[in-house]
């Protein structure tokens, strides 16, 4: 049986911790007041409202009635859930390092990351399919970060499952 040196295992753990932390930062960034859709250089929308630049100051206003409805609530709710599950996964990851035996270490963290992954995929997919169809504009940086976060959570979930199997 081949055993990994301690320094290699430590590097893996720090790398995973860093990836989950980055994912948490991405989630906070894209579900907060950040541009999901740019209409012009002076007007953008996010999940919560519309931002207009006047006299070098951004002004917030409510979304128009075309944005209200169940689809917006789905995107908002699943974005918040993705953030919550990722933060939980970070804390569970740290707790599992010190409390569980090697074969069971990353099961709970992997499950939480998988749920976060599904939540953000749902949010970004619904936003893509239901909003801004036929409008002029461009997707903002928060929308792009949402899809990058989805890919990162998929990679983390697979990594947790692989690490769990290697230690059994």
From TrEMBL:
Coarse class of the protein's main subcellular location: membrane
Species the sequence originates in: Kryptolebias marmoratus (Mangrove killifish)
Membrane-spanning intervals of the chain: 7-31, 71-94, 106-129, 141-163
GO cellular component, one term: plasma membrane
Protein name: Epithelial membrane protein 1
Cellular location(s): Membrane
Keyword DNA-binding belongs to the record: no
Keywords recorded for this protein, A-Z: Membrane, Transmembrane, Transmembrane helix
Membrane topology term: Multi-pass membrane protein
Superkingdom of this protein's organism: Eukaryota
Chain segments annotated as coiled-coil in the UniProt record: none
